[in-house]
Write a structure and sequence with these properties.
This protein has 250 residues and is of the alpha/beta class. It has 8 helices and 7 strands, in the order βαββαβααβααβααβ. Strand 1, helix 1 and strand 2 form a beta-alpha-beta unit.
């Protein structure tokens, strides 16, 4: 590791997920002090840093209060924030992931936006002051589906598309003190993907030019690069192994 984050304070939402845990370990190995936010399963990130819970699937007033309480606890523990990594997302259960266009409900969409987009916005808003003081950075999670679409995960893609736009908006309103970039993964080899059918896993791999799934470690390295001081701002890195629109049959 480079030590670019030696002595820096990094806050990670969605820290107890498969990717979140790997990202947290990568920042810790690079010398960062960590503030970790999870919906539950705090035991999965015990020992990596200061951990707090925050429920994003709650009434709006409770969500804001929960985000602000998490911020206050973490800023007190860390003394500031140099990077905010926004990974929190609605769990991608196979039942929801495989819903057809006709099956996706308003509640499905509400839940995806509440966690993926509203949660991202509120945490960026809550930490904006600390990040301005540190001239820090934000990394937002989007998805390759935001750019090329997919036939699976139809409840998630609209929220991830909104997050790609959120990168541009946050980069503009927080400039010049804070850099904001995004990462748009494609199929990543995580635990939930193992619960899909062989056909769905093959579909995820076959979309890429590399003909394989990405790894959480590859996502973590890209996030560290985006969060470290640099010139990139308002950009969304598509880390998907090379996903392009399907060829025409004509």
């Amino acid at each position: 590791m480079s030590g670019r984050f030696e002595g820096k304070s990094v806050v990670i939402t969605g820290a107890s997920g498969d990717i979140g845990r790997v990202v947290a370990r990568a920042f810790a190995a690079d010398g960062a002090r960590l503030g970790l936010v999870a919906r539950n399963n705090a035991a999965a990130i015990a020992g990596l840093g200061t951990a707090v819970t925050c429920e994003l699937l709650a009434p709006a007033d409770r969500v804001r209060a929960g985000v602000e309480a998490a911020r206050d606890t973490l800023l007190t523990a860390l003394g500031g924030c140099d990077a905010l990594i926004l990974l929190a997302g609605l769990p991608a259960t196979p039942a929801l992931w495989n819903k057809s266009l006709e099956e996706v409900s308003a509640q499905d969409l509400h839940d995806a936006f509440a966690v993926d987009t509203v949660g991202t916005f509120l945490f960026a808003q809550a930490f904006a002051g600390a990040l301005r003081k540190s001239h820090g950075s934000i990394v937002v999670t989007s998805s390759s589906a935001a750019f090329y679409g997919d036939v699976l995960g139809l409840a998630y893609a609209p929220a991830k598309s909104a997050n790609a736009g959120l990168v541009k908006m946050l980069a503009r309103v927080l400039a010049p003190e804070v850099r904001v970039n995004g990462i748009a993964p494609g199929g990543i080899d995580t635990g939930w993907l193992h619960s899909l059918s062989d056909a769905d896993k093959a579909h995820a791999s076959a979309q890429t030019l590399l003909r394989r799934l990405g790894t959480p470690e590859e996502i973590a390295q890209a996030i560290l690069d985006l969060a470290a001081p640099g010139y990139a701002n308002g950009q969304v890195l598509q880390l998907d192994g090379g996903v392009f629109p399907p060829k025409s049959d004509s």
